[in-house]
């Protein structure tokens, strides 16, 4: 009498594990890409805030061609492209605003940003105090 598993049994188990792994990956990958996009968006907003404070001058955040740009005058300091992640960005209206020398929105209102990818969304808020979460 033999003990152990036959080659056929091992292949069936490996096939089942592969299917389960692919199902898990198909749910995980979009969530990971959306989280990565949100992290990059937060980094761009933090760059705008930090530069406004460091320079002691206003920094502009604007939406152009589906991108978020952080600018001082005509110089672009940071660029966020949600399409690199397969996401879309819904930003505050109007399409641009400034952060003052204190790193706060010039109009003292909070700004909501929403990233969307399929049926998943992720929101970031720039508070009137300049806090980003």
Automatic annotation (TrEMBL):
Entry GO CC: cell outer membrane; periplasmic space; plasma membrane; type II protein secretion system complex
What SUPFAM superfamilies does UniProt report for this protein, alphabetically? Pili subunits (SSF54523)
Q: Which Pfam families match?
A: GspH (PF12019), N_methyl (PF07963)
Membrane-topology annotation of the record: Single-pass membrane protein
Q: Per the database record, which ranges form the General secretion pathway GspH domain?
A: 37-130
**Mind telling me which residue stretches traverse the membrane in this protein?**
6-25
* PROSITE patterns linked: PROKAR_NTER_METHYL
- Tell me, in one coarse class, where this protein mainly resides: membrane
User: What's the superkingdom here?
Assistant: Bacteria
**What are the recorded Gene Ontology BP terms?**
protein secretion by the type II secretion system
Q: Where in the cell is it found?
A: Cell inner membrane; Cell outer membrane; Periplasm
- Which keywords accompany this UniProt record? Cell inner membrane, Cell membrane, Cell outer membrane, Membrane, Methylation, Periplasm, Transmembrane, Transmembrane helix
Record protein name field: Prepilin-type cleavage/methylation domain-containing protein
Q: Species name for this entry?
A: Thermus scotoductus
């Amino acid at each position: 009498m033999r003990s152990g598993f036959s080659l056929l049994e091992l292949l069936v188990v490996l096939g089942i594990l592969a299917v389960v792994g692919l199902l898990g990956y198909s749910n995980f990958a979009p969530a990971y890409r959306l989280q990565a996009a949100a992290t990059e968006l937060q980094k761009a907003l933090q760059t705008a805030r930090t530069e406004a404070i460091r320079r002691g001058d206003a920094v502009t955040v604007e939406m152009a061609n589906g991108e978020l740009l952080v600018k001082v005058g005509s110089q672009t300091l940071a660029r966020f492209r949600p399409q690199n992640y397969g996401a879309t960005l819904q930003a505050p209206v109007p399409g641009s605003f400034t952060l003052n020398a204190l790193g706060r929105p010039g109009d003292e209102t909070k700004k909501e940003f929403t990233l969307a990818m399929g049926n998943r969304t992720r929101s970031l808020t720039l508070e009137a105090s300049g806090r980003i979460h």
